[in-house]
Design goal:
By secondary structure, this protein is an alpha/beta fold. 33% of the residues lie in helices and 20% in strands. Pathway: Metabolic intermediate biosynthesis; chorismate biosynthesis; chorismate from D-erythrose 4-phosphate and phosphoenolpyruvate: step 4/7.
C-alpha cells in the first residue's frame, strides 16, 4: 500500500520494460513492513538532467536507482560521489543528503565483490583479470581495487577505454599494480568476463579457457542465461565460479544500506523476489 508517508525510490532509465528491481525491492519492503516503494520512471536522455534535479525537490523522494542510459551522465549532476563511482566513471544510486545535496555511489562492482567473498574466495592481495572495461567492468575494477587486490589486469577491444580505466585507477589507487592489453588468464586468481560475449548464441568465448587454471575463481556478468558457455567451460575445468545474477542480488543489500533501510542477504532476496 502506497500512502502519503511512503518513501519514493525512483528507478530511472529508458526504456523501462525490462526493469527487474521493483520485483525484488518491493516484495522485500512489503514483507518487512518498510514504508517505501521502487517506481519505474522512464526518462529520455535529453530530458534527464532537468528531470533528476526536479525529482529530488519532491518532499517524499528518498533516492533513485539509476540504470541505462543514465549511469554516466548522472556523474555531472551530483554534489558528492564515492571513490567507486569516480573510478567506474558512472553512478547507479543517488540519495538526498540531510543538507539537500545529491550523493551518488556505484554498486555493480560491490555486488560482484560481495558475492566472491561470500563464496569464500580471498580478494585482498589477489591477482585479477577483467575482460571488458566498459560500465560494468569499470565498476568491478573499482570495487576490486577498494577490496585490496594486488594486481589488476584490464583487457578491452577498445584500447582507449582500457587506458582511461587504468588512469582512473592510478589516480585513486596509486599503489595498485595495473596493466592493460592482454586477456591471457594464466597466473590470475580471479578472472572476470565483463563483456557482452555470451548474450547471443554463437558468441566466441571471451577468454582462452585452456589458459585458465582449475584453481582460478571465475566471474560472469551476463544475466540472460545462468550458465553461459563460458561458465560451462570453466566448470568443466574445475573452477569455482559466480553467475551473472549473483552480482545483481548481492548488490541490493549494499543499496539498502546506502538508502539507510534495514538490510538483508542475497539469499533472502532471491527467495522473496517475484521475477517469474
Amino acid at each position: 500500500m502506497i500512502t502519503g508517508t511512503t518513501k519514493l525510490i525512483a528507478h530511472l532509465g529508458y526504456p523501462t520494460e525490462s526493469f527487474k528491481a521493483p520485483l525484488i525491492y518491493n516484495p522485500y519492503f512489503e514483507k518487512n513492513g518498510i514504508d517505501a516503494v521502487v517506481v519505474p520512471m522512464g526518462c529520455r536522455p535529453e530530458d534527464y538532467p532537468a528531470f533528476l534535479k526536479l525529482l529530488f525537490r519532491l518532499s517524499n523522494i528518498h533516492g533513485a536507482l539509476i540504470t541505462m542510459p543514465h549511469k554516466i551522465s548522472t556523474m555531472a549532476l551530483l554534489d558528492e560521489t564515492s571513490t567507486n563511482a569516480k573510478v567506474a566513471g558512472s553512478c547507479n544510486a543517488v540519495r538526498l543528503g540531510s543538507d539537500g545535496r545529491l550523493i551518488g555511489d556505484m554498486f555493480d562492482g560491490e555486488g560482484f565483490v560481495r558475492g566472491v567473498l561470500r563464496k569464500g574466495k580471498k580478494v585482498e592481495g589477489a591477482r585479477a583479470l577483467i575482460a571488458g572495461a566498459g560500465g560494468v567492468g569499470s565498476a568491478i575494477a573499482a570495487s576490486l581495487a577498494q577490496a585490496g587486490v594486488d594486481h589488476l589486469a584490464i583487457f578491452d577491444a577498445n584500447e582507449t577505454t582500457a587506458t582511461a580505466l587504468l588512469e582512473r585507477l592510478k589516480k585513486y589507487y596509486p599503489q595498485l599494480k595495473v596493466t592493460v592489453g592482454s586477456a591471457d588468464p594464466a597466473g590470475f586468481d580471479i578472472v572476470v568476463n565483463a563483456t557482452p560475449l555470451g548474450m547471443r548464441r554463437g558468441d566466441p568465448l571471451p577468454i582462452d579457457i585452456d589458459r585458465i587454471s582449475p584453481s582460478t575463481f571465475v566471474g560472469e556478468v551476463v544475466m540472460t542465461k545462468e550458465i553461459t558457455p563460458f561458465l560451462e567451460a570453466v566448470r568443466a575445468r574445475g573452477c569455482a565460479f559466480q553467475v551473472g545474477t549473483d552480482m545483481l542480488f548481492e548488490q541490493i543489500p549494499a543499496y539498502l544500506e546506502f538508502f539507510e533501510f534495514p538490510t538483508t542477504t542475497a539469499d533472502n532476496l532471491r527467495a522473496i523476489a517475484k521475477l517469474g
